[in-house]
Amino acid sequence: MSSPRILLVLVSLILLQANLLALVQSQSSCLNNGNYTSNSTYKANLDAVLSSLSTNVGSNGFYNASVGQNPDRANAIVVCRGDVQLDTCRGCLQNATTELLASCPNQKQAINWQDSCMLRFSNETLVGILATGPTWYLWNMGNATSPDQFKQDLRTLLDNLRGQAAYGGSLRKVAAGNISAPDFQTIFALVQCSPDLSPDDCSNCLIDAAEEIPRCCDGKKGGRVLKPSCTLRFESYPFYNATRLQELALQPPVLSPPGPGEHGGNTTQTVKDGGNSKTTTVIIIVVVVSVVASVILAVAVGIFLRKRRKQKPMENSETVDDISSPESLQFAFGTIRDATNDFSDNNKLGQGGFGSVYKGKLSNGQEIAVKRLSRNSGQGDLEFKTEVLLLARLQHRNLVRLLGFSIEGEEKVLVYEFVQNASLDLFIFDPIKHSYLDWERRYKIIGGIARGILYLHEDSRLRIIHRDLKASNVLLDGDMNPKIADFGMARLFGHDETQGNTSRIVGTYGYMAPEYAMHGQFSVKSDVFSFGVLVLEIISGQKNNFFRNGENVEDLLSFAWKNWSEGTTANVVDPFLRSSPGSMREILRCIHIGLLCVQENASDRPTMASVALMLSSFSLTLGVPSQPAFYEPSSYDIDVSLPQENNSRDYEHNSTQSDHSSKNDASITEFHPR
Asked: Which domains does the chain have, with CATH numbers?
């Protein structure tokens, strides 16, 4: 090829790359939340608020403002990428403003992502409101080598960065770092939240963003997930300005001056993912890397790899305050009594061995669930403090949140968030309500439970073994998201501890791992066993110890194993789900995963980290399960006395109930319809 032709090709490739980069650096979404006219009051307010953004944004890269009064108030939020300089931030916002008005000329609500900034405007309050949709994806065309290990290392890195970002303060919530990956690779990542979010909302947003990675970037060595309230990006090369981030970390926070008419607002509305977007809410952009860019990148990576040093993964940086004084969570008993109308029977949600659960409403209108421990329940100070101290420290969207407690004389109550849809068992085992849970919802519930248990096992400050995971201890919120509840039987471990023994075996028949039920040995694999049973219950719609097969009643694990071995696994599936043949491959894979979790030998069961990976990656080949432990129904008490207690952290208690449900039934998960 002649030199002029080569030069022409190179110029064309460079121009193509420039156009593609421009595409990548600007994405707009117009939300169908009403239109405005060119001479309207809202248009004038919007122009005023947008004109203030680039000049008033401070060095922290965050600014919010509003102009006007409802219903014509215009609100805006800007967040610049945490590692960019102020002049870059301001220039980015000017471009975003121009492009957003051009892309969404009449919409009252819209969002634009640039490479260095994000701009949102709306006629609704934006400050402090978590918005996880619409979502945009971008990914690197290159594939990661050793993809399974790459994904595990990426998850570790993102989990570490999530904690740093969530607790980064009210003006800056950003974190970046890297981790050694297989085959001489290094993964670089940056996560960022809008700093007006609470730590919980920031963490939940980044969890949602990480969950999108398998959908857009599975097996890729780079990708981005862009949401209104948070973003994440990972690459196999250093794409962020680490020096700038270090400089900002050392600077004292600087407050931005108030904008015109700026004021806060109270609202509970959240922008729903995939809600009313005028354009497609999830847009996939394939970034074609030109030959020139590939050569440059290869050279840069080669130089970097020669200089690369081994680096240990960062330790989990969760910074939930240590609660040495539970009084900070204490409610006045009179407040709780008033909230429940003096524990009125009309407010009772459930009754169990430890007491009753009531719905209440605080004076500010917040709904709560109150667990009132019975005075002769047998749950003493140890069990009570276990739930208080554990739940106060746990921060995860798939765990029920403890709001506080109250003590007065012999009265002890725990105050939780109220979860609208009660417990999972009231849906999957109900002949009518089970039809509310299609496969998409059931799969979402399975994944959420897996993430909650994974957090307890690996990502919380202490390793926590739940020991009573079951359908009635999983609550469902208004969007059918699962929340694991009832930590009265939980056991605490240091991260270097993996198992323990107990002489008091408590829990729920059918969910207990055989080594625990027979010998009092428990570990993270005990929870894995319970999770496997729960997966099979969710898919079959029947209880583990009362599986009805025609006129016969048998053990669910036995039935699932027999059908899997004979190649008739579909017999295990709830008939309601069989009407969706397109989902059957995913359903059968989940049964396979459930059988791997209930294997008799604890060492054969996967960890929850492996389970989460199996659920999110269909490219991962599953192992062959061995025969599970089979149980025979029994009505006698399961409290077994063993010679000695080998673990000093003893939080369990005896139970004398003999039903086939929970042995600590006074959980807030024991809801019953009135």
From this structure: 17-122 (3.30.430.20), 135-252+266-307 (3.30.430.20), 326-417 (3.30.200.20), 425-616 (1.10.510.10)
